[in-house]
Input
Amino acid sequence: MRRKSKEVNIQDFYALDFGAMWHYFKSETLAFWMICVYLFLEYVRPQSIYPVLDFLPWTQIAVLGALVGCFLDKTVRWVSCSINATLILFFLVILASSIFAYRPDVSYSQLNKFYTWFVIYFLIINIVNTEKRLFLFICVFFVASFKLSLSLSITWASRGFSFADWGLSGPPGFFQNSGELAIQMLVFWPLAWAFSLKLKPYLNKVKYLVVILMPVTAIMVIMGASSRGAQLALLVQLVVLNYKSILKPKVIISCSIVFAILWGVLPDEQKERFKVVGDDKTSQQRLLYWENGLEMINDNPVLGVGYFNYVVYYENYYSDDMLYDRAELPHNIFVQIGTDAGYVGVSIYLLLIIFAWRKMTSLQVALRSKGDDFSRLPRYLNISMIGFLVAGQFVTVAYYPFFWIHLSLVVSLKKVVDRMLNFNGSTNKR
Output
C-alpha cells in the first residue's frame, strides 16, 4: 500500500530514507519544487555542462515558478526579520550609488548581479519555512556541492595531487574559477560535517561513509584549488572551531597530524606560492588594488565611486598602477562594497554579518539548553561564514551566492527552530 505523506516523519529524513524523502517532496507545493530546482540548476549548471540542454533560461524559469508558486501556496507567510530590513536598506543604497555613479550606465548594466540575490533571498526565507522543507533544501545544497567536490577531488587524485596553475575548476558559472570554487567548499564542509555528526546514529555504515565523504572531499578541493586565500581561510576555520581546546595536548597532536597530512599532499609549487606572497606580480597588483580602492572610498565616502564602477574609475585615475593590460575588480569584498556604496554600504554590509552571526549564536545556546545535538548546525554556519569572510579578503565575490544563500539559511533555520521550540514549549505547558 502506498505510504501517505503524513506518515513520513523527520526520523525518516535523518535516516536518509530516500523513498520517504522523495514521496514527501512529490507532495510538496510548486513554490518549494521550484526553489529547489533553482538551487540545483544554479550550483550544478547541467545546462552549461551539456549544451544540448541550454535551449531555455532554466534558472530564470525556476525563479519565476517559485514566485508564482508563492501566491498559490497557502503555507507561505511573510517572514519578519531584522536582516530583511537591513537587506532592503542595502538595496536602496546600491540603487542610490548607481544613480550618482561615476558611470551610471555601467552600474545599471550590472544591477542584476545584486537584485537577483535580493529576490532569491526573500523567496527562500518565505518558502523554506518548515523543518522538512529546510532539511530537503539543505540536502539539495549538499548534493549540488558534493557533486563538485567528489568529481574534482577524484580529478586531483588522478593527477597524483600535482600542481596546476589553474587549480581545479568547476562548471561554467559562479564556481568555474578555482578561487570561487574553493570558497564554495569552505562554505560547504562545515555544514556537511555538522550533518554527519547529527545523522550518524540514524545511518547505516554505507550511508554514513557517503555523508562523511562530503566534508573530506570538500577539504581536498580546497587544497587542490591552488588558492592561497582559501587555504588560509581553512586554517582559520579549524583554529576557530577548536579554539577552546587548542592548547590541550591531544588537540595539538591531532591538529599537527592533520596539518602535516594536508601540507604533505600540497604540491611543491603551491608551497612555493606561499613563500613568495607579497613579492609576486599577482600579490603586488592586489596590494595596489586595495591601496587605491581605499583611496577611492575616502575620496567618495558616502556612496563610493558607484556600483560596479571600480574598474572604469581605476583605469581612468590609476592607470600608472596597472601591472596588467586591464584593471580588474579589487579582490577584496570590503573594498568592493566600499567602492560600490561608500562607508554607508560597508556599514550596512557589516550589520548583515553581525546580525547573521548573533542569530546563530543565540540559536546555538537555545538548542543546547534543550539538549538538541543539532545545536552544532548554527555554530557551523558561523564557521562557514568565517571561511567566506577570510577568503573574501583576496577575491571579489561580494555578489556571488555565498553570503546571500548563507543569509537565507540563517533566517530559515532561525524561524523554523523558533517555531519548533515555541510549539514544544506550549505543548509541555499543557
